[in-house]
Specification:
Elements: H1 4-36
Length: 38
C-alpha cells in the first residue's frame, strides 16, 4: 500500500485548492440567483 500515501496527498491538495476556487466560482451564481428571485 505504498501508493496510497501520494494519492491521499493529491486528494488533500485538490480539496485544499478546489474548495476556495469552487466557492469563488459558485458565489457569483448564487448572488445572481438571489437577486433574480427577489
Amino acid at each position: 500500500m505504498r501508493w496510497l500515501r501520494p494519492v491521499t496527498r493529491i486528494t488533500y491538495l485538490c480539496k485544499l485548492i478546489g474548495t476556495p476556487s469552487l466557492a469563488a466560482f459558485l458565489r457569483p451564481k448564487l448572488f445572481w440567483v438571489s437577486n433574480w428571485s427577489r
